[in-house]
Batch of 2 targets.
Target 1
Amino acid sequence: MNKISKYLYGAAIVGVLVSCYDSANAQFPGFKPTPGDTLKSIRISADHKITFSMYAPKASDVTVSGDFQKSYGALKLQKDELGIWTVTVGPVTPDLYSYDFMVDGLKVVDPKNIQVKEGAGGYSNLVEVPGKESDYQAIKNVPHGRLTKVWFYAESLGAMSRVHIYTPPGYEKMTEKLPVLYLQHGGGDNDASWATAGRANFILDNLLADGKIKPMVVVMPYGNPGGGFFAGVGVDTDPYYNYFFKDLVPYVEANYKVAASRENRAYAGLSMGGLQALNMAIFFPEKFGYVLPLSTGFLLIT
Amino acid sequence: MNKISKYLYGAAIVGVLVSCYDSANAQFPGFKPTPGDTLKSIRISADHKITFSMYAPKASDVTVSGDFQKSYGALKLQKDELGIWTVTVGPVTPDLYSYDFMVDGLKVVDPKNIQVKEGAGGYSNLVEVPGKESDYQAIKNVPHGRLTKVWFYAESLGAMSRVHIYTPPGYEKMTEKLPVLYLQHGGGDNDASWATAGRANFILDNLLADGKIKPMVVVMPYGNPGGGFFAGVGVDTDPYYNYFFKDLVPYVEANYKVAASRENRAYAGLSMGGLQALNMAIFFPEKFGYVLPLSTGFLLIT
C-alpha cells in the first residue's frame, strides 16, 4: 500500500467517524456538553489532601465516606453554581483508600473513576494517594506474578466455584514445589478483593523483588459459599469448611506446583476471614503450619 | 475441643456480632431499614421480560438504557408510593445484556447487581436472560480454562502493560504448542471486556467441551495504549501497533506454549477492534493466517 492509498484509507476512516458522530447526535437528540464531562472526581494535592467532586445539579444532598477517615461518617459535599459538589479531606497518609458517594440517599459508583473494589454486595471506588508510605503496594517495573481467575466444579457445593490464584514471577518454568498461602477476604468482600483493594499481588511482587519473601502461590477463595454473611462459626455445618478441605485444597494441590504438607500450608484472613483463620487454628491445626488472623476484633472480648 | 467449648466459642462470636451491630448503629445513627434493602433490581419472567427496579425516593427522573433494545433510547421508570421506580421490557431474546441506570441525569451503577462490564470509561451492569439461545455462553459444569491478568513492562510504551489471557482446560500439562488468537475489544471497552460482557472464556470452554474447536490460547490486549479513543488508523504512528508487535507478541511467544508462525496466529476484533483487524490484514498480512473484523461498519462506506 503506497502513501496515497494510505491517505485515502485514513480519509475513509475519518468519514466513518464523522458519520458515527452524526448518528450519535441523532440517536441522543438531547445530548449537550455539561460541566461534568471533563470533571475530575478526585484531585490529590502535593500535601496529600483529597478533593472529591461530583456533577449532580439536581441533587439535594451529596456525601462521601470511606476508609480515608478513622470513622465512616458521611462527609457532606458543597454545591457550586455549576452543579458540581465538592469536599476536600486530609491530609491523609499515602495509601489506597476506598470511598462511596451517596446522592440523595442512593449509593453511586463514581462515574469518573474506573478504579473499584469488587465486593459481595457491590462496588466501592478506590483512590490511591501516592507517597513513600504506600510505595510497598505501588505497581512498579519489577517482575510481576500472574493473577488468575480459576473456575472448577465444587462437589460439596453442587456448583461452579471461582477462586483467584496468584503465581509468582517465573512460576511457569519452576520445577520445585512452592509453599501456598490461603488468603481470605473480609465480610462484604469477595475472592477478587484481596487483589483490588488489597493489592496482594503487587505487594507480593514488590516483596519478592526486594528479596524479602520466598516465592509462593497465594489462593484467594470466596468466603461465603453458603450465601450467608457470616461464615465464621459452625465448622460442622458451614459450607465453607467442607468446600475448603474437600474441594479447594485438593484442586489446588492437584493443579498447582505446591507442596502438600502442613509446614508448607499457611492461612491468613481479614476480619470475617480472621475469624475463619481462628477456626482453622482451633479446629484444623494439623492442616496448617502458619495461621494469621487479621483485625478480627475477637481477642478484644473479655 | 469438646461440644461445650464449641458452644462457648460460638456464643462468644455471637457476642462479637451483637457488639459490632451496636457499634454500627452508633456509627450510623441515621440507619434505618428501607424498601430498597431487600429490593431485587432485576426480575426476569418465564417469558423473557426484564423488570428493572431502583429505590430512589428523592429522585425526579429515573431511566434505563441498554443493548436489550435495538436503539439505546432511555426508558423512563415509574415511581410507586414507596419510592421504588420500575419498568418492564421485552420479551427479549435470551442473552447477556448490558444496561445503565440514569438518576436525575447521573449515571448510577445498579447498587443491587454485582455483575458489571468494565470499560475504558466506567462500568455498565450486566443482566443474563437465560434460555436456549444463550446456552452457548452459560457457565456450565464443563472443564474450564483459566483467565489470567498478566502485567509486563512494555518498552515501546515505557510503562507497565496489562493483558488478559485465556488458556484452555488442561493447558498446564500440555506439551504441544497451541495456536493463538489475539482478540481485540471495541471502543469504550478494555482488556477485561471480552471476558465480562463478551464471556469469551465461557464460550470457548463450551465450544471445547462440544468438540467444536481445537484448544487455543486467547490473548486480549488493551486497544488504546496511546490513551486516545480511536486507534484504528495510522499504523506508523499509533502506539498500538508498535506495542503489539514489539512487546506483546514477543512476550506471549516467550511465555506461553504457542506456535510462533503465521498459520498459528489469528486476529479478531470488534468494532474499533474490527478496524484494527482490517489494519492487520492490510499492513501485516505476513503475521496472521486468519483475520476476522467484526461489526466495523467500515464496509458500508461507498
Target 2
Amino acid sequence: SSMSSKKLLVDVDCGVDDAQAIMMALATPYVEVLGITCVHGNTNVENVCKNTLRVLQACNRLEIPVFRGAAKSILGNVISAGHFHGQDGLGDAPDPNAPGLDMLQMEGAVSALIRIVNENPGEVSLVATAPLTNLALAVRMEPSFPSKLKGLYIMGGNTESRGNTTVCAEFNFAADPEAAYIVLNDFLCPTYIASWEFTCYSKLPWSWCDDWLAQESEKARFMAQIFRHSMEESYSERSQAEMIDGMGFVSCDSYAMAAAIDNTFVTESDHMAVSVELTGTHTRGMMILDTLGMLKKTHKAFVMKKVNMVRFEQMMMDALK
Amino acid sequence: SSMSSKKLLVDVDCGVDDAQAIMMALATPYVEVLGITCVHGNTNVENVCKNTLRVLQACNRLEIPVFRGAAKSILGNVISAGHFHGQDGLGDAPDPNAPGLDMLQMEGAVSALIRIVNENPGEVSLVATAPLTNLALAVRMEPSFPSKLKGLYIMGGNTESRGNTTVCAEFNFAADPEAAYIVLNDFLCPTYIASWEFTCYSKLPWSWCDDWLAQESEKARFMAQIFRHSMEESYSERSQAEMIDGMGFVSCDSYAMAAAIDNTFVTESDHMAVSVELTGTHTRGMMILDTLGMLKKTHKAFVMKKVNMVRFEQMMMDALK
Amino acid sequence: SSMSSKKLLVDVDCGVDDAQAIMMALATPYVEVLGITCVHGNTNVENVCKNTLRVLQACNRLEIPVFRGAAKSILGNVISAGHFHGQDGLGDAPDPNAPGLDMLQMEGAVSALIRIVNENPGEVSLVATAPLTNLALAVRMEPSFPSKLKGLYIMGGNTESRGNTTVCAEFNFAADPEAAYIVLNDFLCPTYIASWEFTCYSKLPWSWCDDWLAQESEKARFMAQIFRHSMEESYSERSQAEMIDGMGFVSCDSYAMAAAIDNTFVTESDHMAVSVELTGTHTRGMMILDTLGMLKKTHKAFVMKKVNMVRFEQMMMDALK
Amino acid sequence: SSMSSKKLLVDVDCGVDDAQAIMMALATPYVEVLGITCVHGNTNVENVCKNTLRVLQACNRLEIPVFRGAAKSILGNVISAGHFHGQDGLGDAPDPNAPGLDMLQMEGAVSALIRIVNENPGEVSLVATAPLTNLALAVRMEPSFPSKLKGLYIMGGNTESRGNTTVCAEFNFAADPEAAYIVLNDFLCPTYIASWEFTCYSKLPWSWCDDWLAQESEKARFMAQIFRHSMEESYSERSQAEMIDGMGFVSCDSYAMAAAIDNTFVTESDHMAVSVELTGTHTRGMMILDTLGMLKKTHKAFVMKKVNMVRFEQMMMDALK
Ligand SMILES: [Ca+2]
Ligand SMILES: [Ca+2]
Ligand SMILES: [Ca+2]
Ligand SMILES: [Ca+2]
C-alpha cells in the first residue's frame, strides 16, 4: 500500500528546507532512513554535515549514519546560495551543544550510496534535495547503481524557465548542471521531479506556517529557531522577485520527500523526457522539458504538477510533533 | 483616443495568420497601412511577396506598397517552417489570377522601412509578425530608426520555454535568433510582445472559427480557402504537441496587430527586460524574461498577459466582412 | 599582368597599420582607390573617419571619397582595442589642421560599397582591414554583392589559436565574430586571408622600420608622428605576450593590401574551407581552418602562408616616398 | 638522477601506441609499474582491458595488476575513434591464447589509483595516454589525490587548433572534454603535456619504424602484428589530412611515457596555464593555451616543445628488445 515500509536514502545540502524534509521522513513510522549523504550547496559541505547532525540530534536520531560527499560540482566550482538559509545554511542560529564532525562516518558519501543500495537491491528510494554531484559520481563509479534503486525523488530544475538563481535556472541544477544532466540521462529508474515552479504553485500560507511553528514540541522550537532567518529573508526584494504566483511558505525539499514517502501524494504529473541545458548564456542549468519529443529519449520522468495538499499539511505538521 | 488614426508598417512572412493580421488592419477604418515589408519565414521570401499581394488583392487594396526583404537570417541560414501553412505558406491553394511579382516595389524592404519612418517621425507603429531580420538590418543601417517609431508590436518568442519549433524556441525567434536579439536590445521604443504561450492561452474555440469563416463575403471565402490546410494540420500529432492549454484556433500574428490597432486591447502585461538566448544546445532562440533583474537592462518590454477577447473577436470578425 | 590597373575599395578602422596599408595603395601608380569605407574597431567610427581623412590629407588625396559605416558590431557591442594605436587610433598625435567630418560623403558605407561595385562589376578588389561589419551588412542588403567583386582581401583571423585580443581570437574577428562568420560563409568570390599568425611570421626588423621612417618626405614624417605611440606600446608586457615568433615590426593590414595590389605577392597559401567559432567560452571569434574537411563547404579561401618579402619591403618603402 | 628508480601508474585506452608506451615502461629497468588502469577510448573498456592484458603477456609481465575503469565519458557519451587502431583497438589481430578478463583485479580503476597513490605518497608518476575520465573521477572522489602525485604526464590536447578528431580537437580531449577540463584545473601537481601537434613535429621516419619492427624478438613480432592495421590506415586520405608537417611514424603516447621515465627527455617546453574549451561549435574539446595570461590561473603546465629524439629512438628500440 501507499504506506507500507519504505527504505530511504537522503542526499542533502542541509539548509532549512532539507531539514524540514528530513524531519518529515523521521516522523513517518513506516519509513527507515538508511543514511544521509551530504553535498555542497546551500553552504559548504562541512556545514552541511554539521547541520545534518544537528537535525538528527534535534530528533533524537543520531544513530542514522551521515556521510560526507562532494565539496564542489563536477566541473569544480561552487556557486553561492546567496545565504537565503544563512551563512551556515541553518539560519545562523548556532547550537553550543551541536554534535561534532567526529560523528560522521569514515566512509564517503558516494561509496556509501553504492554500498547501501547494493545491500538493499530494488528497495531503496533515493531522495535528492541538493545539487546532484554525489548521484552523478555514484553512477560513474558504479553504472548499475540506478538500476538497483526503487525510485528517485528530486527537488530541482524548473519547467517554465523561471530561474531563482540565474535568469533561467533553479539553484540545485544551476549549482551543478553537469551532475543534473548526468542524473537525468543515466538514472533510468522511476524518477519524480519537484521543480521550482511546482513547489511555488504548491506553497502554504504563512498563517499556516505560524500554526505549524507554534506547536508545543522540541522539534517545533528547533525549527522556529533555524527558520527565522529564511522567513525574514523571504520579504527581501530579491526573494519576492524569485517567487512565483504570490507569496507564502515554500518548503521546496519537502515535496520530493513527501512523494517518496507516500505513493499517492502526486495526483498529476507530466510523464516526459527531460534534460538540462549545459551551454546557454542565460540558460545554462535550466531543465529542458521535451514537450515536442525532439530529444528522442526513451526514459521519461514524472514531472509533478498536482499533489495532495491535505496530506502534505498533515505530513508537515507531523514532522514537528 | 484608442481608436484615433494610426499609421502602420507591417513586416510579414505571409503565412495564413499574417494574412489574418493584415486583413484585420485593412478592415480598420482609422488605420493607414503605409507599406508591407516581406521576409523569409513561413516560406521563402518570393512566396511571401506573392502571398502578400494575394491578400491585398483579396481585399482590393493593391495600392498598398509591398517590399521584398531579407531572404535569409542574419547568419545566413533558413529553417523550415514545417509547412504548417502549406509549402507556399498560404495553404497550397493557388490562385490563377494572383498578381505577379512585378507589382512589388523596386525599393528594398529595409530601405523602405527607414525611409517611411523618416517621413513620418514618431507616428509609425511597426507590427512584426515574422523573423526579425528586416528590423535588425534596419537598425544597423540606420541606428536612429527605432527612436523614430511610435511603437513596436512583435509576435514572437516564448515566456515559459515551451518551444513550437525547437525544444524551447518559438518559430519567429528560432528562425533568426540574432535578429531577435538585436531588436530586443536596440529597439528602445515602446515594445509589445505577443509570445507563443500568450497566443495559445488566448485562443478562440474552433466553433467560433466555423462561424467566422461562414460569413457571406469574398474575404471569408478567400480565408476559408487558404486556411483549410492549416486547420487540417492542426490535428496532427506534432501540432497537438506544440499547442498549450488545450486545442483551438490560435491566430498568432493577429494579437500583435490588434495591440497595435487598439491601445486598450492589452489589459495586463509584464513590464520587463527581455533578451534572447543565442548559444544554448536546446535553448538557442528562446526568449529570456529577466524576472530577477539580472540582465541590468534599462529598457523594458510589455510582455502581453491578458487582452480584451471580446474586442479581439470583433476585430477578427470585421476582418472578413 | 600582376601590375595591371587595379580598382580598390578599402574598408578600414583606421589605426596606424590601416594608414600604412592605405598609403601603400595610394603610392601604387596603377591602383585606383574608388573609396574608403569606415567602421568601428581600433577606435570609434567617428575617429576612424577623421583618421582616414588625415591620412588622405597627408598624401594629398582628399578627392578620394570616404564613407561612414557601422558604429558597432552586428550584435551591437564594441570591444576595446586596448589603445595599442592610442585612444584616437592614430597615435594620439592630433593635427590642428586635420580635415573636418564635413569632408565625409553623405552616403553611408554599406550603400556606397554596393553602389560602387555595381558600377564596376567584376573589377573591384575589396581590401578589408577591420571588423567585417560593413561587409556583412552589404551582403545581407544586397545578396549579389560578393559575386560582383573581383576579389576579397582580409586582414583578420588566426590559424593556430594564438589570440591577440581574447585567449584564442584575433582583434578584427573578435570585434565582430558574426560579421566574420557571415563574410567567410557568404563571400564566394576569391578570398585571401592574412591571419594574425601569418603577419607575425612575416614581420620586419625594427632596424628596417628605423630606415623606413628616416626617409626624407612629408609622408615619412607623418608616419613617424602617428606611429610613435604604437612603437612604444610594442615593448609592453602585453604586446610581447601577443607577439609570435620574436619581436619586430608587424604592419598587419599592409599584407592584405599588398596581396590585393600585386597578384604575385602571395607565394604559398593553404586553399581551405574556413569559418568562425561563434559560441566558445575561450574561442568565440577564433577562425576555424577545416583541415579535415569536416565542414563540407565547397568554397575555399586562400590562407596566406608565404609572401614575397622583398616586394613587401619595396611596397612599404614606396608608401612613404 | 634522471634514471633513478621510478614508480609509475599508467592510465590507458590500450590502442597500439598505448601498447608501445607500456612496453617502453616495462623495458626500463629502473621503472616499476604499480598498475595499469583502463578507460574507454580507442575501443570500449572491455577491449581496452583485454588489450592491456595481451601486452603484459607479450612482455611476460602479467603480475602487474590491471584495473577496469570508466566505460564512458563524464557526461556519458562515447565517441568513435574511427578504428584507426582497428575495431578491437589492437589491429584486429586476435590471439587465441590471450588472457581472459578473469585476470583483471576486482578493484575498480578509480579506487586503485587513489589507493596506490595513498600507499606511495609523493612517489608516483601518473602517465595518462587516454581520455581522462578515470583521473577526473579520482580527484572528485578524493580531492587530495593530485597533491600526492610526483607528476602527471598526459598525451592529449592540441596547441595550434589542429584537430585530429573534430575540426579543432585532439582525440583524448575530444572524447571527454569535461574530464580534460577537470584534470587541467584540479591536478596542481607538476604536469607535462605531449600535444597532438608536438607528437607530429617529433615523428620518426617510416624507415626507422621498419628497422624497429625487424628486430629479432618476441616483442617485435607482437608489435609487427598489432601495428599492421594502423600502418596501412596511415595512408588513408583522412589520416593524411590529420597529420601535421609531413608523413611518418607518430607513437603519440610514447612521448608522455618517455617524459615520465627520463627527467631529461623534455629539452624545451612552454610553462603556461592551460584549459579546455567546453562549449564551442567547432572547438569543444580544444586545449586552450593561455599565452596572454587572461585565465588568471596560478598553476601552469609544461607543454612540450622539444625532446631528446636520440634518447627517444633508444627507448623505443629497447621497448621491443
Ligand atoms: Ca536542499
Ligand atoms: Ca508570421
Ligand atoms: Ca585595421
Ligand atoms: Ca592512447
